[in-house]
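In response to reviewer comment 3 from the previous cycle, which asked for concrete evidence that the modeling workflow produces usable outputs, we include below a single protein chain processed end to end. The sequence was submitted unchanged, and the resulting structure tokens are shown without manual editing.
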Amino acid sequence: MAGYKLISFDKIPSTQTYALNMVATGDARDHTVIMAEAQSAGRGRYKRTWVSHHGNLYVSFIYDSEERDPRLSYMIAVAIAETLISFGIKPRIKWPNDILIDGKKVSGTLTEYAGRFVIIGIGINIKSNPTVENYETTKLDNYVKVDKSDLLNKLMKNLDKWRRTDFPLVRARWMDLATGLNKTVKYRGETAELIGINENGALLLRNGSRYMLTYGDEISMQ
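The workflow returned the following structure tokens.
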């Protein structure tokens, strides 16, 4: 855990909320990690609940960030995927940074900016996976036995590596691992073809001869 300060709990409402409170009180520092064995009010994207039972990895990373960077989501996704690959797993990335195994979600990310920091919340299913309506999930234990401390150490190293990597290399690796490329997706009520991401981190879609760029909107696979 070189270079990181780890703050660990058995159970708190949310590592992400705890990290945001650290920023609000002036206690946040670059390379701080908040980890909980379980969460009572875990949060995902779009205000969704992140079910957080004991046995999985729930962490929030605090990093210095003077400005928002739409490319960060792809750096995070590649870092998580490469971490799982190091354990012999074959993950895929669903835009922008959900991690799938055999088409089932095993990891999700919530990125929030606060003050001069960015807070990256990551959940990885190790021992259990929630039952989610219309959304298949899985856990690492279905494929390989993973030590949580080892997983966290490798994740920290990969986050440092891929956040420092030139974006053209990140983009290329994300495209290698992405699922749904050249497939039909639903975007703002209409169908489009998922082409990839551009050099600025925008998602590129095509509807006939018309191209569309989006940064934060949700798409659904057909």
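The mean pLDDT is 90. We consider this sufficient to address the reviewer's concern, and the full set will be provided in the supplementary archive.
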